[in-house]
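Weekly structure sync, notes
Attendees: PL, DS, HV (note-taker this week)

Item 1: Protein PBDC1
DS walked through the input record. Source organism listed as Alligator sinensis. Sequence as pasted into the shared doc:
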Amino acid sequence: MMWAMKAAQHAEVYFNLISSVDPTFLKLTKVDEEIYAAFRERFGRLRIDVLEPEELKSEPAKEKWRPFCMQFEGVVEDFNYGTLLRLDCSKDYTDENTIFATRIQFFAIEIARNREGYNSVIYNSATQRKMAAAVKAACDHG
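Item 1 (cont.): predicted structure, written out as tokens:
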């Protein structure tokens, strides 16, 4: 049960981070460059804006992911630790939009989403909400 609470807390912190900082500038690990290069070399055609669970969970997918993940053993702390991953990167973590993945899968996909601009929708949406609230507050006090 403790790992599930930790995974949920990690998801909340990460979502708050990409809501408040432009994700294209985020660095998630000390080895983002290596993770991104290895991920796109091995999974160049993988659609990352909206993930298909089968791309992570099917037996053929697991066979493809296993060597990718193992190359980061000893490089990324807790590389195989369980984390939550959003299927559709334009949406928040919900029961329908969340899948269980390893930490290195999370890093690979989220680094790619950040670099390729897919997570910007979350940041832009949050920024627009903050601006609208500030305008409303100014008008209410104005």
